[in-house]
Amino acid sequence: QKEVEQNSGPLSVPEGAIASLNCTYSDRVSQSFFWYRQYSGKSPELIMSIYSNGDKEDGRFTAQLNKASQYVSLLIRDSQPSDSATYLCAVSHRSSNTGKLIFGQGTTLQVKP
Amino acid sequence: DVKVTQSSRYLVKRTGEKVFLECVQDMDHENMFWYRQDPGLGLRLIYFSYDVKMKEKGDIPEGYSVSREKKERFSLILESASTNQTSMYLCASPRGDTEAFFGQGTRLTVV
Q1: Distance (Å, rounded) from C-alpha B78 to C-alpha B99?
Q2: Per the CB < 8 Å rule, is B100 touching A105?
Q3: Per the count of CB atoms within 10 A, which of A13, A99, B22, B95 is most buried?
């Protein structure tokens, strides 16, 4: 079992819809969770981080964390064609300063005009 | 601005060559990471370093080694390049347990 799993997609949504991206992780020690966006040919860039159970909102983006279910999700409201990219879920272990940052395989999102 | 710089954007090497990929960060971060990215497999951790001369294996260290002689520089070494090491290599430097900053990537082709 992979440490971090995502559905590779592609996930296709119409412009203006809500895109829902999901991620599960296997190690209960994981304490920090991140969503990165990666455009084709570019490096990943951080869009959301979440550290405690519940929801965290930033503009059109909402990250949701459920540690009991080992599940983290990203909702994108009012999806735009410019949101079309690969979204990478990442987890780290905050128990020591040597924590690893582990990524899922990414979900490709296509927002159609 | 935080900067993570990788020495080459594109590299073509021959099978059996020793290959050095260099990464430099200018933010005095403790941790640095090397990943490779392949279609359908996402970013896989090769090695990471949490201090000068300190390193730990990631998930796929075979065929690679690393060097961190100075805090700002983290080098990935392919001891004897093989065609299955053709990939995109990404260096990252996180600020503590928060955002990781990535270099622009090195697309390595081994022929």
Answers
A1: 28
A2: no
A3: A99
Query: How far is residue A17's CA from residue A19's CA, in Å, rounded to a whole number?
Result: 6
Out of A44, A97, A106, the one facing B102 most closely (by C-beta) is A44
The pLDDT score that the predictor gives to residue A5 is: 93
Residue A104: CB atoms within 10 A of its CB come to 26
C-alpha to C-alpha distance for B76 and B97, rounded to whole angstroms: 23
Q: Rounded distance, CA A94 to CA A29, Å? A: 8
List chain A residues with CB under 8 Å of B97: 32, 92, 94, 99
Q: How is residue A102 written in tokens? A: 């582990």
- CA distance to A23, A25, A33, A67, A77, per residue, from A52 (Å): 15, 15, 9, 8, 22
When CB atoms are compared, the residue of B40, B50, B98 closest to A98 is B50
pLDDT (mean) for A69-92: 96
Compare all CA atoms of chain B with the CA of A44 and give the residue at the minimum distance. B102
Contacts of B60 in chain A (CB under 8 A): none
| CA distance to partner chain A, nearest, from residue B45 (Å) | 7
Q: What is the pLDDT of residues A2-54, one digit of tens each?
A: 789 998 889 999 999 999 999 999 887 778 999 999 999 899 999 999 999 99
Question: What are A55's two structure tokens?
Answer: 């929801």
